[in-house]
Design brief:
The complex is a heterodimer of chains A (about 325) and B (about 325). With about 325 residues, chain A is of the alpha/beta class. Chain A has 10 helices and 12 strands. Chain A has helices at about 45-55, 80-85, 110-120, 130-140, 145, 155-170, 185-205, 215-220, 240-245, 250-260, and strands spanning about 5-15, 20-30, 35-40, 60-70, 75, 90-95, 175-180, 205-210, 225-230, 230-240, 305, 310. Chain A has an 8-stranded mixed β-sheet, sandwiched between helices. The two termini of chain A are about 30 Å apart. The longest helix of chain B has about 35 residues, at about 90-125. In chain B, helix 10 (about 215-245) runs antiparallel to helix 13 (about 275-300) and helix 13 (about 275-300) packs across helix 14 (about 305-310). Chain B is an all-alpha fold. Helix content of chain B is about 80%, strand content about 0%. Chain B is flat. In chain B, about 35% of the residues are buried. Chain B has a domain at about 95-310: MetI-like fold (Orthogonal Bundle). The chains are: A alpha/beta (about 325), B mainly alpha (about 325).
């Protein structure tokens, strides 16, 4: 399998008056062509910041401090806005969480999708309406002929997400980043959207980075899963491996929340995600970790490989 | 078709508003202390003469009777005869109207042309000098009295530099100082509203989508930021224009500009009831009309408004 994306020691910091928020703090991973990589983590784990960094959509006060993002041999952290503009929507595209607010209320859905073609191929918007209708058929939009003329407020949440997906796949990009694409939708629509993303991958060979807090969803759809905690990767492995044999205590916690023992009450991991301005010393998870050892509060765990998997925990070091 | 229906609906509504307004105006004008008959007759006049003039003007009859007469002729399109000039009120208003229209539209156009670009620049660079200038203009422009700005401009450009006429009308040159005076008063507020609206649009999620598509900065700004910021800008600009059409009373007085505003002052000083009523009725009409036009512009900008408005018909 050929590698399409390699992220090396990426750090994205928000420079706020209260201090520096280290939202992504030394993240490395790679992605193969046609692969679906799931990224899981709680709110505040840095997963959405990672998504925006990969799509070149960070805005001040967020800054890439260091690290490299190698996409098709090109270091994206060195690109200027003009080069990014030609890349975005054509080679790298994004699907966002809340389809209602990510569409402009004053234009028809068809116009907004056709803008992708206009941006990269030029010419008039109206020239691309037939292509948009084809896209709508591909994403299984009901009544594509009529829907290209609909405004966002005339469409349901599921339809609007299909509009955003149409934009994302219009130019058959190499990489689609989906940030919580189903969280705002109800469960049946959720399942349809997931199925749709799978079909798109099969048809176009696009790689997909699927970001969600819903680990159960990832276990179903992703080839590999990356677990993030407080701006760092704590574990990365094949979905089946993560499911069968989670290594990191945090991953185990997430899984136990999914599959509670019969007699147990609703399970949860005690505590909450730490401040990223002043993260705990040593392992960032140690204050909440059921298996914490004295040295966990002193020594920051290295990222190590265990049978081809990646984990960052002192239990597996030395 | 729905646009036509909507306009008909709004105009019929406006007619009712107009009738209500005419009653209020009729009463309020008569609440003014003073008596037109006494003013016409002069300070030395005999009481009989005053009574005679009052009878001529119909002011001796009971109020409801005067109102009925007034309304009947109003519905016929007759605004009555000016007490002071003895000419039809409508003629007086029509003679002044072009001046007010020219001044109001020029001032508002100047304000929009300066304030909207300023507001956009300020929104794009919130910590820049332009942004601070907008904040200062908003306070200064709105707090400096128009007559003071006007006098300063006259002092600089007419008295010292001798570039522009200080008062009167007749040439485009005469228009410059009064319209700049008014525009200066309007710019700050309009620029501040523009900045706020553009900043809000800039921060909205659909702009992130626009960037993610690979759209150029120019298209992002015009299509996805400016168009979405238009409604608050339209609102403020139309209220400003409405107020100007009612006559910029102080500015017209300072520059001896023969518009509706100075006509109103004139008619009120002379207790010229028909003329004052006519001018105020005209102001009400201008406001109603501008409101309708503004609502239609909203509908053109935002499809959600369109749907709601057309449904009210």
């Amino acid at each position: 399998m050929s590698e399409i994306l390699r992220v090396e020691d990426l750090r994205v910091y928000y420079h706020l008056p209260q201090g520096v928020v280290k939202a992504v703090d030394g993240v490395s991973f790679s992605l193969n062509r046609g692969e679906i990589l799931g990224v899981a983590g709680e709110s505040g784990s840095g997963k959405s910041t990672l998504a925006l960094a990969l799509a070149g959509l960070l805005r001040p006060p967020a800054v890439i401090e260091s690290g490299r993002i190698i996409f098709n041999g090109l270091d994206l952290t060195r690109l200027g806005e003009g080069e990014w503009r030609r890349l975005r929507g054509r080679k790298i595209s994004m699907v966002f969480q809340d389809p209602s607010t990510y569409l402009n209320p004053v234009y028809t859905s068809g116009f907004q999708v056709a803008e992708v073609y206009e941006a990269h191929r030029g010419g008039r918007i109206s020239r691309y309406m037939d292509l948009v209708k084809d896209l709508y058929r591909k994403v299984k939009m009901a009544d594509p002929e009529r829907r290209v003329h609909s405004y966002p407020h005339q469409m349901s949440g599921g339809m609007k997400q299909r509009v955003l997906i149409s934009m994302a796949i219009a130019e058959k990009p190499d990489l689609i980043i989906a940030d919580e694409p189903t969280s705002a939708l109800d469960v049946t629509i959720q399942a349809e959207i997931i199925e749709l993303l799978r079909e798109i991958r099969a048809e176009t060979g696009s790689s997909i980075i699927f970001i969600t807090h819903d680990l159960a969803l990832l276990l179903e759809i992703a080839d590999r899963i990356m677990i993030m905690y407080a701006g760092k990767i704590v574990e990365l492995g094949r979905s089946s491996e993560i499911r069968e044999k989670p290594l990191h205590p945090y991953t185990r916690g997430l899984l136990s929340v999914l599959k509670p023992e019969r007699k147990q009450k609703l399970a949860s991991i005690p505590g909450s995600i730490p401040s990223l301005i002043d993260p705990p010393k040593g392992c960032r998870f140690h204050p909440r970790c059921p298996m914490a050892m004295p040295e966990c509060s002193r020594i920051e765990p290295k990222t190590i490989k265990v049978n081809g998997r990646i984990v960052s925990c002192l239990l597996y070091e030395g | 078709m729905s646009l036509v229906n909507y306009v008909i609906y709004r105009l019929s509504q406006a007619f009712i508003t107009f009738l209500g307004a005419s009653l209020l105006i009729f009463l309020f004008v008569r609440l003014l202390p003073g008596d037109p008959a006494r003013l016409i007759a002069g300070p030395e006049a005999l009481e009989e003469d005053i009574q005679m003039i009052r009878a001529q003007l119909g002011l001796d009859r009971p109020l409801y009777e005067q109102f009925a007469t007034y309304m009947v002729s109003l519905l016929k399109g007759d605004l009555g005869t000016s007490i002071k000039y003895s000419t039809p009120v409508l003629d007086e208003i029509l003679a002044r109207l072009p001046y007010t229209l020219v001044l109001a539209f020029t001032a508002e156009a100047l304000a929009v042309a300066a304030a909207v670009p300023l507001g956009i620049l300020a929104a794009l660079k919130p910590r820049s000098l332009v942004s601070q200038l907008v904040s200062v203009l908003a306070v200064v422009g709105a707090s400096l009295p128009v007559f003071w700005t006007g006098l300063m401009l006259i002092f600089i450009f007419s008295v010292e530099l001798k570039l522009l006429p200080s008062s009167g009308s007749g040439s485009p040159k005469h228009l410059i100082l009064p319209s700049v005076t008014l525009a200066f008063f309007l710019i700050g507020n309009l620029a501040r509203i523009t900045r706020a609206a553009v900043m809000e649009s800039l921060a909205s999620n659909h702009v992130v989508t626009a960037r993610a598509k690979g759209l150029s900065l120019g298209k992002i700004l015009t299509r996805h930021v400016l168009r979405n910021s238009l409604i608050p800008i339209l609102t403020v600009a139309s209220v400003q224009l409405g107020a100007l059409l009612g006559g910029a009373v102080v500015t017209e007085t300072v520059f001896a500009w023969p518009g509706i505003g100075s006509l109103l002052i004139d008619s009120l000083f002379f207790r010229d009831y028909p003329l004052a009523q006519g001018v105020i009725m005209f102001t009400v009409g201008a406001f109603i009309l501008i409101n309708i036009v503004t609502d239609i512009l909203y509908a053109l900008v935002d499809p959600r408004v369109r749907e709601v408005l057309w449904k009210t018909v």
